[in-house]
Amino acid sequence: MKRHIRRGGLPAAALLPVLALAVACSGTGEPAGAGEDAGRTPAASEAGDRSAPLTAGGLKAALLTEAEAEAAGFTVTGGGARTGAAADDADGDATEPAACAALRKVRSEEAPGRGESAAAWSMMYGRDGAGALRKTVLTSYPAKTARSRVAELRRAVDSCDRFSVRNPYGAASFTTETLPVPDLGEEVVRYRLLGRTQTTAGDKGYAYSLVTAVRVGGVIATVETSELLGPLPPARLAEFEPEPGPDEPMIAALVEKVSGSAGG
């Protein structure tokens, strides 16, 4: 049984820059290549290839509504949608190695260089407003491009056991752990990130993310649970392994809705 760790809050002034560092995305990354068709059936691929990418309106309609989120135990607190890809990265984020940027791009609503046709996102918390933030990001592509993005993400999960990020807010070093995947959609990737952050002002702490990315045709649906933590002693940090269990019904409901919108 995993032990729960009492969260040590970071100073209020440090929360925003550390959060920006922890979730910001680099626009760099290696192009997808061989292996993108692994784990799929030809029939499913051909069916997905015939579907046009969903528009921003179609993606927004595929997000869980307030009532649907409430039924799954969550309260929606915000969101939005966009046609086209995000603008160029103005903050100068840099990920090392560059290929590891895929681990961060997939879970961001603003990820330059990802090349989506449209995007939609929502933020939610547990029904009582407590606990970690859950963020849903839907991105739409031609089906072949979506498969390439998942292949790129899978390679990053397999090879980026450690990577670092720098931006004007500070620096962070991350470790990556692959998690078992649920039986959802056409392809699933799930992993856990734990980052040690330090702002330019000298504030230190940890940030974690649980990420589940599911492809349905040309849509990639990503759910991220993330939280900022204060400094943790090494012994307690070693015990900190949050699991996605409570989110499973919500993720399944989201993927079912996306499947209907994408014609899956």
Strand content range: 25-35%
The strand count comes to 9
User: What structural category characterises the helix and strand content?
Assistant: alpha+beta
Radius of gyration: 18 Å
* Helix fraction bin: 25-40%
Q: What letter string, H or E per element, gives the SSE order?
A: HHHHEEHEEHEEEEEHH
Q: Helix tally?
A: 8
- Stretches where pLDDT is under 50 for at least 5 consecutive residues are 1-20, 23-48
What does this structure look like?
By secondary structure, the chain is an alpha+beta fold. Helices cover about 30% and strands about 30% of the residues. It is built from 8 helices and 9 strands. A 9-stranded antiparallel beta sheet has the order 1-3-4-9-8-7-6-5-2, sandwiched between helices. α3 (about 55-60) runs antiparallel to α8 (about 250-260). The protein starts with 11 loop residues before the first helix and ends with a helix.
Q: Which key terms come to mind for this protein?
A:
264 residues, alpha+beta, disordered N terminus, nine-stranded antiparallel β-sheet, single chain, globular, 31% strand
